[in-house]
Amino acid sequence: MALLLSGPALAEEAAGDWGGILGGQLHVIVHIKKDGAAYSGTLESPDQGAVVIPIDTVTTTPDHLAFSIAAIHGSYDGKWDDAQKTWTGTWTQGQAMPLALKRLDPAAKPPPIARPQEQAISAGPNPYTASDVSFDSRAAGVKLAGTFSVPNGKGPFPAVVLIAGSGPHTRDEDVFNHKIFVVLADALNRAGIAVLRYDKRGIGQSSGDYKAATTTDFTTDATAAVEWLKSRPEVNKNRIGLIGHSEGGLIAPAVAVADPSVAFVVLMAGPGLPGDTLLLMQQAAIARASGEPEAAIATGQAMNKQAFDMIKASSSLEDAQGKAKTLAASLVANGQMTQAQADAAVAQLTSPWFYEFLRSDPRPTLRKVKVPVLAINGALDLQVPPKADLEEIRQALKDNGDVTVTELPGLNHLFQTAKTGAPSEYGQIEETVSPVALKVITDWVSAHAK
Q1: What is the mean pLDDT of the chain?
Q2: 317-356 b/e with 16+ CB inside 10 Å = b?
Q3: In 267-384, where does DSSP find H-type helix?
Q4: Is 286 helix (H, G, I), strand (E, B) or coil?
């Protein structure tokens, strides 16, 4: 996508604090520091919580600012617009979106966004106790930190592990300042279910290296969470289940197949399609919802498929890195990408997580799941398109005698009540999780936890 420019490009020092609004809704703050001739930085989005993400590379000249963040597969490339006093350019993260960054007034703060479900939980009183805990994922040599919440009253209680989707999530699964797992855990606790949720390795208070981790590594950590629950006197060891959201729905079946003590599985927008197929469908759906022309979508699909096929055909991660750099160089040379976009694309395509996810196919594992399964998707989900995804899950689980597959009308990937399902709506919606979705999950879990 072409870089968006406006006005004459003159000179500006990039060091400092810069703010902008992505997609007309999401506040973004970029902190750039200068140490001699070298630049570094961090990025944060107040609308998505207090997480500050380190920037991997910063490239700047008097009229050009570019940076990339491998952890979130994002990059920015902008030119200085002296008339507007902004860096005017493009943020690329799966899709390209215009982003103008203006120097911040240190006293300026974006307005607070209402999150009524979370505010009610914070206000209390709540019929359960929550405590900070930690446990070892021994196979990886990491210590995971989390929150264990237990209903009031006499146990032992059935319990679930909440497994987050892709990205550097804490135990809250904070997305656009929606603490999805706080709301889900509250609903489950009120239904008499104990809940363990935890920071991913290398995130929050958990040790380990997030950047080097793959879905297989996160599966090891989820298995360790189940083992920890078995050790708790408050928990009925025979009634421990798993609830996985998005990538967590890829992890949960793998844990259930490996550990016969798992009693049930809930897939919230869990993948039923191969990783490369799902990503291509996701990219097209989000681009279409964002108003991109069909010709541009087709071009993007062709480019992404070429890259995905190349990575899948690579003999190793190192081989993939070399091929990705060669492909990116050709796209820069013919003007299809800026160098910053190419650097970010190479980092994304050849990260350990992405390399493994492109090769993933959940269907063989799903066929081996013998415990009860609830699979739900929002009908407006653009990240995991529901009809194709649920049909693959249904077919893979056809020999399982206790499977419920449900498409929930009007809900998006976060299971919010939405208008279009586009990710750009997530932060605007006050609701964190639809009461309809919460009831479907808690009713089903309660029935299968007896």
Answers
A1: 89
A2: eeebbebbeebbeebbeeeebbebbbbbbbbbbbbbbbbb
A3: 275-289, 294-313, 317-333, 339-349, 352-359, 363-367
A4: helix
pLDDT at 57: 82
Query: What number of residues does the chain have?
Result: 450
Residue 347 CB contacts under 8 Å (≥ 6 apart), including other chains:
56, 68, 70, 73
Compute the distance between CA of residue 245 and CA of residue 148 in angstroms, rounded to an integer. 18
β partners of residue 52: 44
Cβ 379 vs Cβ 411: under 8 Å: yes
Tell me which of 128 and 94 has the higher pLDDT. Answer: 128
Using an 8 Å Cβ cutoff, are 68 and 56 in contact? yes
Show the CA angle centred on residue 304, arms to residues 392 and 290, nearest 5°: 80
- How much is the pLDDT for 8? 33
Q: CB–CB of 199/163 below 8 Å? A: no
Q: In whole angstroms, give the CA distance from residue 305 to residue 297.
A: 12
Q: Does residue 4 register a pLDDT over 50?
A: no
The pLDDT confidence band at residue 3, using thresholds 50, 70 and 90, is very low
CB burial readout 54-73, b (16+ within 10 A) else e = ebbbbebeebbbbbbbbbbb
CA 209 – CA 224 distance, rounded (Å): 17
What is the full DSSP assignment across 180-229?
A: HHHHHHHHHHHTT-EEEEEPPTTSTT--S-STT--HHHHHHHHHHHHHHH
d(CA 31, CA 27): 13
DSSP structural state of residue 8: -
Query: pLDDT per residue over 207-248, tens digit each?
Result: 999 989 999 999 999 999 999 999 999 999 999 999 999 999
Q: Cα 333 to the chain's mean position, in Å?
A: 32
- Measured between alpha carbons, how far is 218 from 222 in angstroms, rounded to an integer? 6
Give the strands of the sheet with 373-378, arranged side by side. Answer: 128-137, 142-151, 194-198, 157-163, 235-245, 262-268, 373-378, 403-408
pLDDT at 66 > cutoff 80: yes
Is residue 59 within 8 Å of 340, Cβ to Cβ?
A: yes
Percent of the chain at pLDDT exceeding 90: 60
Phi/psi of residue 368, nearest 5 degrees = -90, -5
User: pLDDT at residue 424 above 70?
Assistant: yes
- Alpha carbon distance 118, 135 (integer Å): 26
